[in-house]
Write a structure and sequence with these properties.
By secondary structure, this protein is α/β, with parallel strands linked by helices. The chain has 16 helices and 23 strands. Strands 15-14-13-12-11-10-23 form a seven-stranded mixed β-sheet, with helices on one face. A seven-stranded mixed β-sheet has the order 16-17-18-19-20-21-22, covered by helices on one side. A four-stranded antiparallel β-sheet has the order 3-2-6-7, covered by helices on one side.
């Protein structure tokens, strides 16, 4: 059989326990919390009232809610998945129960006396894996020894890659709907860290022997015709200019928070979340084929599913030289180590930065900067904005930063100086804390607290202060999740009167009145900076 290419339209979705894999499903304890408090609760609710779920997913006001999008059908399969989850995840469920029970006891009983007697009450599933401590205000805290927890509980047994052809941008919201098998999909039972995946994804640009690939991935006889249909002998249309060779700086916006900076000597890709090509589409886009042959640095701003996306990263792993990301606070359930997440999913050359660290580049540097907000007031440190200095130009990628304290930017710009281009998220009416972090909570949060502790970025007033302090020449609103290929991880649908649109429109108009080039980015855009 002649050599073939994997079609550019073939998507590769990573799954764990038949749920879409996002960063909090890799570390064992956050994963355990999501299994118990998200997956099982949603599935059990669906089995009890499937029609309520079917009606809820049609209501735009409930977009992104805890409702399974299966049209009220496939109930028996969901029941089977519940039973399968309880059996296969028994140790993780016990880990969740033990942690929450111990945490409740500490929060109730520990008032400032020595915590040493509590070590005798640590459940067997947690013994030797945690430290009991107080903060300076005598609030008890369970510090996780993350590497040891991985060693005892991390397993790749239930990781899979699902291959299917891309028909449209639409996909069901992945945080609330499990993946049940479809006739047009191929399931590869393979750990995310397996280098065989790198060989598979190389075939989107380099041909390989299809018989060998079928044997390598143990494709069953019944699935071979479908697997073969995912390949073609026609070479892909690779843009000649994807490897920038100019003397200037080229910047390309790939959608959401994904931006590529290139000179002829270095390439830097921020928060890669990249669309597949479609035969017909209304939104112009760059795809994986528009990325260079090698990516020197992939830079991650924070540990949310729309910024650290395995689906894209795994397909790029063979191209990536280094991954740059923020360090976490260490030992907190809500702030797992990105380094350990990437290490256990097969990535090499991991560069962990703290606030104000500097990473030298050819003809420049990357400066890690503080990033406030967008994490519901939780003490999550694994978030950074970045200033990239290249050839005397400065570019600030502030992602979803919420300008809670304007004085911070006085310090930042005193350090880095004025900037040429600002990229800032203005998703200023974000989801409540429990939408993402609810499964991690030991005790319920008051509804009023949940509503005002949100995953929100800057509004006009906050964003405009950054512009004024930065003296930037161009300011762009990005990371808004408007592109249609983002909806399955963000569940956003803006109306003209939505606060995010109203506030960003005010921002763009204010910039233009001051002679600052500005727009709300959408789809794709390119700049050449001299």
């Amino acid at each position: 059989m002649e050599k073939c290419y994997l079609k550019s339209t073939i998507k590769a979705e990573p799954l764990i326990w038949h749920w879409y894999a996002w960063p909090y499903l890799i570390p064992p304890l956050p994963a355990a919390c999501n299994i118990v408090e998200r997956h099982l609760k949603i599935m059990q609710s669906y089995v009890q009232n499937p029609q309520i779920h079917a009606q809820a997913v049609k209501d735009p006001k409930l977009l992104g809610g805890p409702f399974i999008d299966l049209e009220g059908k496939r109930i028996d399969e969901v029941k089977t998945l519940i039973d399968q989850t309880k059996k296969e995840c028994e140790k993780l469920i016990e880990l969740h129960d033990s942690f929450k029970e111990l945490d409740r006891a500490l929060q109730t009983e520990a008032q400032g006396d020595s915590l040493e007697p509590y070590y005798n009450r640590i459940p067997a599933s947690l013994k030797g894996l945690i430290e009991l401590v107080y903060d300076l205000n005598n609030h008890p805290f369970i510090r996780l020894i993350e590497p040891l927890i991985y060693k005892k509980y991390y397993s790749t047994q239930h990781q899979k890659i699902v291959l299917s052809d891309t028909i449209s941008d639409f996909r069901k919201f992945v945080l609330s709907t499990p993946r049940l098998a479809q006739d047009d999909e191929i399931y590869l039972d393979i750990p995310f860290s397996d280098p065989k995946l790198d060989r598979l994804f190389r075939t989107k640009e380099e041909p390989d022997n299809l018989n060998e690939l079928q044997n390598l991935f143990e494709i069953s006889q019944s699935n071979q015709l479908l697997f073969q249909s995912f390949f073609t002998t026609t070479p892909p249309a690779i843009p000649e200019n994807r490897n920038y060779q100019g003397e200037d700086i080229r910047i390309r916006y790939f959608g959401h928070a994904c931006v590529l900076l290139q000179t002829k000597s270095v390439s830097i890709l921020f928060d890669p979340v990249i669309s597949y090509p479609l035969q017909t589409h209304e939104v112009p886009r760059y795809t994986l084929a528009d990325l260079p042959d090698h990516i020197d640095y992939v830079v991650i701003t924070h540990n949310h599913q729309d910024h650290l996306m395995f689906e894209t990263l795994l397909q790029l792993r063979h191209k990536i030289k280094h991954i740059v990301f923020p360090t976490n606070q260490g030992g907190a359930l809500e702030d797992p180590s990105i380094k350990l997440i990437l290490k256990h999913t097969g990535f090499k050359s991991l560069i962990e930065l703290k606030e104000m660290d500097t990473l030298p580049l050819d003809a420049g540097e990357i400066i890690a900067l503080p990033f406030l907000g967008e994490h519901s007031d939780l003490n999550i440190q694994s978030k950074l904005s970045y200033c990239v200095q290249l050839k005397g130009k400065r570019f600030l990628f502030a992602a979803d930063s919420n300008n809670l304290e304007p004085s911070l930017y006085d310090h930042i710009f005193d350090h880095i100086g004025s900037i040429d281009m600002l990229f800032l998220g203005m998703e200023c009416d974000g989801a409540p804390l429990t939408w993402l972090y609810g499964p991690l909570l030991t005790n319920p949060l008051k509804r009023s607290h949940d509503r005002n502790r949100t995953l929100s970025g800057s509004n006009f007033e906050k964003a405009w202060t950054i512009v004024e302090k930065s003296n930037c020449k161009q300011a762009y609103v990005y990371a808004m999740g408007q592109e249609p290929w983002l909806n399955y991880v963000m569940a956003l649908k803006y109306l003209p009167e939505s606060p995010q649109i109203v506030e960003s429109n005010k921002f763009i108009e204010a910039c233009k009145q001051k002679g600052i080039e500005s727009e709300r980015l959408f789809g794709k855009k390119e700049w050449i900076i001299s």
